[in-house]
Design goal:
Elements (H helix, E strand, L loop, with lengths): L1 H10 L24 H16 L4 H9 L15 H14 L3
């Protein structure tokens, strides 16, 4: 599929934990919606998969390790917007 090839080109070598992800065989197109309406619809499909995933923590840490606009798509049940919101919240919660 062309989208899989594009994702591989952008991400390069994938982390090993992705082979164990519950979403491993889910169509890649669901994780890269092209508009807000699709994003909401796709997230509703993906969220239950992420919640039951054995590598959720690794996926979430991976997604949060990227700066703003560096990692698109839905990762660990979060959209790019949600990840940025969480980072802003954490920034103000840190004592230092």
């Amino acid at each position: 599929m062309w989208l899989d090839a594009m994702v591989n080109q952008v991400l390069g070598d994938r982390p090993d934990w992705q082979n164990e992800a519950a979403c491993h065989d889910t169509p890649t197109v669901l994780f890269f919606p092209t508009n807000p309406r699709d994003s909401k619809k796709n997230l509703a499909i993906i969220a239950p998969i992420c919640e039951a995933c054995p590598v959720y923590s690794a996926c979430f840490a991976y997604a949060m390790s990227f700066g703003e606009k560096q990692l698109t798509g839905i990762w660990a049940g979060t959209t790019e917007r949600r990840r940025q919101e969480l980072k802003r919240q954490w920034q103000y919660a840190l004592p230092f």
